[in-house]
Every structure is written in C-alpha cells, then in structure tokens.
C-alpha cells in the first residue's frame, strides 16, 4: 500500500471558522528525503527507487474514463471531480494582476473531461480568453485566428480518434524528494505527502513539471542528478517487467505531442506575461506554439 497521511477533517468551502478551505491530516514519522538522501548509500537509493516503482505500479495499475480529480459524493463513493493544477491562477494573483471582473472560474478550467482533446480544448479556450483581456498579452492577439483553427483541427472526428489514443491514469504529479518522507536509517518510505494536485491524466502527463526524482535543490548539478536517477528508475522498471510505466507514458503520435506542445507554450506565455517575467523568452515560446499548431494544419 502507498503510505499516505490519514485525513482527519476537511472543508472545501469557506463556510467555517477559518474562513477558507482546509485539510487536517495525521502527522507521519520520517524525515524529508530531500534532507537526508545525501547520506544514503547506493544500495539505499536503489531501495528508494524500488519502493517508488512499487507505488507507481499501484497508482498506474488502473485505467480511467475521465481526466480530472477524484471527489466523494454524498454516499461516500469516489467519483470524477474537477481538475486542480499547480499552474492555475489563484488569489491573490488574480486580484493583483488581472482586470477586476476576472475570477478563478474565468481563468481556470474545471472538468472533469471525457477525453484528452476535450481537456486540451478547455485549456486553450482559457488561454484565448486571457490573451483577449490582459494588456500584457496584446502581442499574442495576432495568433488568435490560428488558435481558432487549431481548436477546430483537434476536434475533427478523425483527428480526435488519433489524439485521444492514450491511457488515462492516476498520478501524484509532484513527486519530488521534499514530498517523500523516509526513515533516515533504513531508507524505508514512511509517507508520500502533498497530493493536492494529484489527478487522472493522459499518461504522458503523469510528471508535467518534471519534478519526479528532483532533490528539491536548484542548480545544474541537481538536474544532472535527477536525470541519472530517472535513467536508473527506468532501467529498474524494465528489469522488473514494469516497462509499461515507461512505454505507456510516451506520446502515441507526433500529432499528440504537437497538441500538447502548443498548449504547454501558450500556457507558459499566459502564466509569465501578466507577472512581467521571462520577457527574453516569450517570443521564442510564441514561435514554438505557432509551429506546433501549424503541425496540425492550423
């Protein structure tokens, strides 16, 4: 079983003494892997990877018929729920950076969604709206006719069949070392924490922020270490006959990859421009998004 804290109480509304959403969970034993992994031997790190493979098999052992979160209905049954993603616009950024009539619902998708193309289309419509209303995105408005054509292209029947050909699986989506608690002596994983952005995703999006196996430290050495650990993880998965964890997590067509690439770079532009960030990069991102949309005939 995947070790997770037990939920003691929660409220997804603001109708409580705190005045906002909350979740109260049990405190679990162990130290953050980010704090102690440098003291582990090679054998102990192998043990960490083997445990993570076991957890991945449990998470990814089922296919689903929706993209989104999981909710509990009034009868206690687990049912499809809305999406929650790390890249969403949250308050106070909405209040500080967007026109006064914008809100969480106008800037973020909801769901659940029945297919990959429906999920991507919902994102694209939010990016289109953002480009239309935010002054910092005015330079992107010349792309809007192409974006309209792109939405039409990915929603034609033949293209939908091709683009939606991918497993839908449950993923943590933010499984870096700081979200893994371990026994600092035995390297046994005692808890996986911070599941707020978990959900059912097209399997190629199981690790959208590339956080998996990151040691939660900045720098080139950290990235190199993560790459080496990922290669070791993939080799171990294949050796243990769990190669589908690697194979099924890849795009199934060039068109599918282009669709996701266009969405990724449009999202990046919409995310940074209102914050006046990455000014030196956005024109290259725009070019990449335009090319990805053109790859699908838009």
Automatic annotation (TrEMBL):
<protein>
    <recommendedName>
        <fullName>Aminoglycoside phosphotransferase domain-containing protein</fullName>
    </recommendedName>
</protein>
<dbReference type="InterPro" id="IPR051678">
    <property type="entry name" value="AGP_Transferase"/>
</dbReference>
<feature type="domain" description="Aminoglycoside phosphotransferase">
    <location>
        <begin position="2"/>
        <end position="203"/>
    </location>
</feature>
<dbReference type="InterPro" id="IPR002575">
    <property type="entry name" value="Aminoglycoside_PTrfase"/>
</dbReference>
<dbReference type="InterPro" id="IPR011009">
    <property type="entry name" value="Kinase-like_dom_sf"/>
</dbReference>
<dbReference type="Pfam" id="PF01636">
    <property type="entry name" value="APH"/>
</dbReference>
């Amino acid at each position: 079983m995947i070790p997770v804290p037990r939920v003691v109480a929660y409220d997804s509304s603001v109708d409580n003494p705190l005045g906002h959403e909350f979740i109260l969970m049990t405190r679990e034993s162990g130290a953050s892997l980010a704090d102690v992994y440098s003291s582990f031997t090679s054998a102990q790190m192998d043990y960490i990877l083997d445990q993570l493979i076991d957890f991945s098999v449990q998470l990814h052992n089922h296919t689903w018929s929706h993209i989104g979160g999981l909710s509990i209905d009034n009868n206690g049954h687990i049912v499809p729920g809305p999406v929650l993603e790390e890249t969403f616009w949250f308050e106070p950024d909405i209040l500080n950076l967007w026109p006064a009539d914008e809100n969480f619902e106008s800037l973020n998708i909801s769901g659940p969604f029945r297919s990959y193309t429906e999920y991507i289309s919902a994102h694209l419509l939010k990016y289109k709206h953002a480009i239309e209303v935010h002054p910092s995105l005015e330079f992107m408005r010349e792309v809007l006719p192409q974006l309209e054509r792109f939405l039409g292209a990915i929603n034609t029947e033949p293209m939908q069949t091709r683009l939606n050909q991918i497993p839908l699986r449950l993923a943590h989506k933010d499984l870096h070392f700081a979200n893994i608690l371990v026994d600092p002596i035995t390297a046994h994983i005692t808890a996986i924490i911070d599941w707020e952005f978990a959900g059912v995703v097209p399997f190629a999006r199981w690790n959208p922020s590339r956080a998996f196996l990151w040691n939660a430290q900045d720098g080139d050495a950290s990235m190199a270490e993560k790459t080496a650990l990922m290669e070791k993880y993939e080799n171990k998965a294949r050796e243990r006959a769990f190669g589908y964890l690697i194979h099924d997590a890849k795009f199934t067509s060039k068109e599918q990859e282009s669709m996701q690439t266009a969405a990724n770079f449009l999202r990046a532009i919409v995310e940074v421009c209102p914050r006046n960030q990455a000014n030196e990069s956005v024109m290259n991102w725009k070019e990449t998004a335009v090319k990805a949309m053109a790859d699908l005939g838009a």
